[in-house]
Design brief:
The complex is a heterodimer.
Chain A: E1 3-10, E2 12-13, E3 16-17, H1 19-31, E4 32-39, H2 44-53, E5 58-61, H3 71-83, E6 90-94, H4 97-110, E7 114-118, E8 120-124, E9 127-134, E10 139-145, E11 151-155, E12 171-174, E13 187-193, E14 206-210, H5 220-229, E15 233-236, H6 238-242, E16 263-267, H7 273-279, E17 284-289, E18 302-305, H8 308-320
Parallel strand pairs in A: 1-4, 1-6, 4-5, 5-12, 6-11, 7-11, 14-15, 14-16, 16-17, 17-18
Antiparallel strand pairs in A: 2-3, 8-9, 9-10
Helix pairs in contact in A: 3-4, 5-8
Chain B: E1 3-6, E2 9-11, E3 32-34, H1 36-52, E4 57-62, H2 69-77, E5 81-85, H3 95-107, E6 114-118, H4 129-137, E7 141-151, E8 154-161, E9 164-171, E10 174-178, H5 190-196, E11 201-204, H6 216-219, E12 222-229, E13 237-240, H7 245-255
Parallel strand pairs in B: 1-4, 1-6, 4-5, 5-11, 6-10, 7-10
Antiparallel strand pairs in B: 2-3, 7-8, 8-9
The chains are: A alpha/beta, B alpha/beta.
């Protein structure tokens, strides 16, 4: 048995649907007869064919939000649809900034719980069952909803492999955005993009991350040098992002990026739960840490107990010499 | 400038977590400490009050067994008072139920201009409670703030994005969730620790907030159906560096043909 209808919160930039959205669509089209999308942006027509290709029959769009932070207006627009009698079994979004904001607001508005951080979805009878990893991914918790739908679900990036279903372009329907009153007062006045060199964390075949074991901010240059030599993306643990050594966009882990590269090199990272969730799906893991008891060694394929300040310079020299 | 900070008291992250086999929820029966993620909000609140030249910081927390040790830490940093909601009826409360409790508690603080939260807790990391609270209180909000400035009755916030940050303006009163690392949380001074012992902590029950039946197991809209061991990743070779370990790494990468 499957569900009858699921809505997916679509995210896109520059007329291209976000990979996380395509991942979710690939999964939910197995679970429900009808998959529709909700999209906040002025360019729904531009993404309708790509959404259709991944199984979306219709995209509801709020149109351009004129700089408003999307949480409040989009949740209000979705709630109005639901309260008007258009009720899907579930509304699924990515565990992203936008996804979390909209799901949280919608939860309060519809008085429905949200289950977050999921890595798998299945239907058991007529029930949606979600899977959430806990304790750094060592344990999976399966949860189902006890109240009436729509069930609100957030899915972690890279949980599913995106695959086209070859469908026709989705129909586009503009939906009303109710007046948000004072709660909708947050407005974006300016955007800043932090330039970074080399491949992105999401797409790099190799990721080199540094952690507190580097000792001080200036030592992060070793991570950058090694990354450059390997055409890798430099990453970081939450500890050194919190300490201000590198920007947040470098963070790998629960609150940062989830990465699944061919090779992940963890330098001076002990392997807190928070970090492991974001990298243990990597194909090969190399860890360098001076503490032989560090949890990172329980997931590494090659573990080196040693000092990053000695090993990284040697490694960099050896690679330069090739 | 009066700021309310939502803080969570959690099991020490250094201790391995466990699920209660009967209730299938996170065990929280040991000693609890202030979630480090919340110390940033406390520090931010103290700095904003100082910059405004007056006002106070009030803590709001929900915890089992009347736990106050984490609250005392934040009071020792400089918060003026705290509201603690503690009640056996809260066991099993989901994220929305938690937001309902915190929202009702926040509503009891008179003259609050700003509510600060972390972006997510370090134990449950649901990450939706800030927006749920804002929704229940019908407040505007800015999530993932890395910097906050006050300009009259308007907040100017730098909000983290996937590839940088946005400048966001928001009228007050408002709720803002702050990322870890926005400020350097102060260490409580000896004087602060002594003063914290006599600062008021108002303890409330579910009935005091008028939320009977809406929280706890009865109010939770979700049920755990199974707990499974995830397929374990096999630990590989671990070697001590004898000065030549880098050669092992080069050989390993060579073998994968990624060089």
């Amino acid at each position: 048995m499957s569900l009858s209808k699921i809505w997916v919160l679509a995210e896109a930039s520059d007329g291209k649907v976000a990979t996380t959205t395509l991942e979710i669509l690939t999964k939910v089209r197995e679970l429900a007869g009808t998959v529709e999308a909700i999209y906040a942006g002025g360019d729904a027509d531009a993404i309708a064919s790509q959404l259709g290709e991944y199984g979306v029959s219709k995209v509801y769009t709020t149109g351009d939000l004129a700089g408003a932070l999307p949480g409040v207006p989009v949740a209000n627009a979705i709630a109005a649809l639901v309260q008007g009698g258009n009720v899907p079994d579930a509304i699924v979004a990515a565990t992203s900034y936008v996804g979390r904001d909209i799901a949280g607001r919608l939860s309060a508005k519809l008085d429905r719980t949200v289950i977050t951080n999921n890595v798998d979805l299945e239907v058991d009878g007529d029930k949606l069952v979600t899977t959430e990893p806990v304790f750094g991914g060592s344990t999976n918790v399966k949860t189902t909803f006890t109240a009436a739908g729509p069930h609100l679900v957030l899915v972690r990036p890279k949980s599913f492999a995106p695959e086209s279903a070859g469908g026709a372009a989705a129909a586009v329907e503009t939906i009303a955005v109710p007046d948000s009153g004072k709660s909708g007062g947050a407005v974006i006045t300016n955007r800043h993009v932090e330039e970074r060199e080399g491949p992105s964390l999401d797409e790099a075949a190799i990721v080199v991350s540094g952690g507190r074991g580097l000792g001080e901010a200036t030592s992060y240059v070793m991570v950058e040098d090694l990354a450059k030599l390997l055409a890798a993306a430099p990453g970081a643990s939450r500890a050194i992002v919190d300490a201000g050594w590198v920007p947040y966009s470098y963070q790998v882990g629960q609150t940062g990026k989830v990465v699944k590269p061919t090779v992940y090199i963890a330098a001076g990272i002990s392997g807190a739960t928070q970090h492991m969730v974001g990298m243990k799906g990597s194909k090969n893991i190399i860890a360098i840490n001076k503490d032989a008891e560090a949890p990172i060694f329980s997931v590494s394929d090659l573990g080196i107990v040693g000092d990053v300040h000695k090993i990284l310079p040697q490694l960099i020299e050896a690679l330069k010499a090739r | 400038m009066n700021v309310v900070v939502c803080v969570k008291q959690i099991p020490d992250p250094a201790d391995p977590g466990a699920l209660d086999p009967t209730t299938k929820t996170l065990k929280r029966d040991g000693k609890l400490i202030l979630d480090e993620s919340d110390s940033y909000g406390v520090e931010m609140a103290l700095q904003l009050v100082t910059a405004a030249g007056g006002g106070e910081v009030t803590l709001v927390s929900m915890a089992p067994n009347g736990e106050v040790s984490g609250l005392r830490t934040a009071l020792a940093m400089g918060a003026a008072k705290a509201i603690l909601v503690s009640d056996d009826a809260l066991a099993g409360t989901d994220a929305l139920g938690t937001a309902k409790v915190l929202a009702k508690a926040i509503a009891r603080v008179e003259g609050a201009d700003l509510v600060l939260t972390a972006t997510e807790s370090s134990d449950g990391y649901t990450g939706t409670v800030p927006e749920q609270i804002a929704g229940l209180l019908d407040l505007p909000s800015v999530t993932f703030a890395k910097q906050i400035e006050i300009n009259g009755s308007t907040l100017k916030v730098q909000r983290q994005t996937e590839d940088g940050f946005d400048d966001v303006e928001c009228p007050m009163p408002a709720l803002v969730s702050v990322t870890a690392g926005v400020v350097e949380p102060r260490y409580p001074s000896f004087k602060g620790i002594m003063a914290a012992k006599s600062k008021p902590v108002d303890t409330l029950t579910v009935a005091d907030l008028g939320l009977e039946g809406q929280v706890g197991w009865a109010g939770a809209g979700q049920q755990i159906v199974a707990i499974e061991e995830a397929p374990a990743r096999e630990a590989g070779e671990v070697i001590e560096d004898d000065g030549t370990a880098f050669e092992k790494i080069v050989a390993y990468l060579d073998n994968l043909k990624v060089l």
